[in-house]
Amino acid sequence: MSASVNEIRAFLDGWAPPATAQSYDNAGLQVGRPEAEVTRAVLALDMTPDVLSEALDMGAELIVTHHPLLFKGVKQLSPGPLVPELALRLAETGIALMSAHTNLDAAPGGVNFELARRLGLRDVTFLTGMDGALRKIVVFVPEGHARRVHRAMAEAGAGHIGHYEACAFESPGTGYFRAGPDAQPVMGEKVQDEARDELERVAEVRLEMEVASWLVPQVVKAMTEAHPYEEVAHDIYPLDRASDSAGLGAVGVLDRAEPLGAFLDRVCKALETRTVRFAGHEDQDIERVAVCGGSGSSFLAAARASGADVYVTSDVTYHTWFDLMRGDGTLPMAMVDPGHYESEYCTEELLQRRLSDAFPDISWHVTTTRTSPVKNWIGSHDLQRT
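Above: the chain sequence. Below: its structure as tokens.
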């Protein structure tokens, strides 16, 4: 059995909607035909020549990466620079390439939740919800039909609030209308005399539900199909509140507090690295942990506001470390930078688990290649300053 590239993309889009990706991103299908069939696939953090060689050796038809190959503008596909040459070779060999990047960062159970799981955290939630991602749909339904419309909207994805589903509110009222000569009213009568000014009065219910912005089209479609009227009066407006169905970073707690030194060992073991950069005192207690895979310096304030004892992220610039400090030089929160690759390569096994469950007949192969070109060298000499 196999599945098409498009079917696999649709699954990933359902889990990590493209609408949740950052504006600068370029996630999705990068190279290949949507209708191509897939029986074998390679999963990697980055697209590299070694990953392509693995795919060719095993006869894979698809490569799925976290980081997009085509991220910035490419003006020609020709041998030489890494990106255009790899794109050219993919096109020549017929291997499709797709990526799930910042949309997978923002997904429930996505990259940051996987990083938190690797570190042994429980009670994990988003570090910060996604702004601008919530909508309210209000629809006016004749009495006796509200239950059906509510059910249809809920099944299409509306009404999710935290751990609750199908959340809605309704209030009674009266709807007024005059059916024109071309209308087909379910209730009331068509206007036969243009001079007639009487209005139909119908007992109706105002039904309102929250919905993620990317689900609005399918919820409106389900609502319209379940509604008895041919013209469905409804409103859609944004909510000035962060969504809890998509977000960035994650925060959770360890089963028990431990010294920062022990936590650093935990990070090294979980992320298979011998070195990390950190700020903090090795004997300070760590229990509440904030994480953001990849470049997460911009969420430093959110990590502090969450009450975290330590923040694990990467690509921390030199001066950002000073942003941790109080005026007296003390640190209210420790910070650990294991490296960009180290904080996100867990995405490979995360993708393997989810895609294997969704498409069990496809062989999902996690690359054996360390895709990062960056290595660490540990010197053997004594240090004058520590």
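The longest strand covers residues 243-259.
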